[in-house]
Design brief:
Blueprint lengths: L2 E5 L3 H12 L3 E5 L3 H10 L16 E3 L11 E4 L6 H8 L8 E4 L12 H8 L4 E6 L4 H4 L5 E6 L3 H11 L4 E6 L2 H23 L4 H22 L3 H4 L2 H12 L4 H10 L4 H8 L4 H16 L4 H11 L4 H9 L15
Parallel strand pairs: 1-2, 1-4, 2-3, 4-5, 5-6, 7-8
Antiparallel strand pairs: 6-7
Helix pairs in contact: 3-4, 7-8, 7-10, 7-11, 7-13, 7-14, 8-10, 11-12, 13-14, 14-15
Amino acid sequence: MTQIGIMGAGSWGTALALLLNQNGHKVTVWSIDPSEIEMLSTKREHSAKLPGVKIPEEIDFTTEIQEGISKKDVVVLAVPSPFTRSTARSMSPYVKEGQLLVNVAKGIEETTLMPLSEQIEEEIPQADVAVLSGPSHAEEVGRGLPTTVVVGARRKATAEYLQKIFMSEVFRVYTSPDILGIELGGSLKNVIALAAGVADGLGYGDNTKAALITRGIAEIARLGVKMGGKIESFSGLTGIGDLIVTCASVHSRNRRAGYLMGQGKTMQEAMDEVKMVVEGVYSAKAAKKLAEKYGVSMPIVDAVNAVLFEGKKARDAVRELMLRDGRTENLSLPWEE
């Protein structure tokens, strides 16, 4: 039996706790919020984020950060991306040399432009950091619906160890050495999902969404490869797969926030109504800065930033995207002479 600590008791942390418990592991879930831990311990249900999903008595809950880390074979970091660095800093004194940490959040830090794994490594240099990502809404994982993800690690043995821990008949896990590509795909797709939601809120159709998804993955891949990610990751589960589900799903908080903005709400009004961290809002500025740093054209990312932070009307942003100069879709394909 593997001892696993989960840092973060939101929808994703809770869903993974259920999965890992079902897989036969001993799970302890930590949250900084005493009221959340009290609710989970007594009601055995996350009524706000996973209503109707019962939590087995075998899963323990704590507000003591050391209890969530000490004597654990694996620690899963499942806090929202804006709180990854601060949580990692609080965890560091209790993490032993070589202890395995798996980040499952998605985001890029606006000030440093670091993906989450690099933030964790900076705060906890003694840890062995891996990532788990893919098209995996907590609402479905918590209900045991079939889901497929990718675990990324530097060493093959680490990835295969985690693969065995997380894998089940309803949760299929692939492995990859491309941590950077996995994280960039998972972070940047949230920005594109905001655009897809805006299009839905404006009343546009399937044609529009298909265009945003396909041109969105082209933008993500251009930047990701320039930064050192592998093109295979962007055509896989953590690239196009995660982008499709986040742009289309009713569970997507990023799509939902975009939809509300497309209907005329401000960014803050949309975030308040979603009532969860909309990570695409936090990643949008970072994505624009990365595009500028690496000299990569990302017109959809630019349009999202204009709507979020510059007061541009969503309909005007879409119109400007459509009226850009004509381009060749794929510059690597040759023409006949």
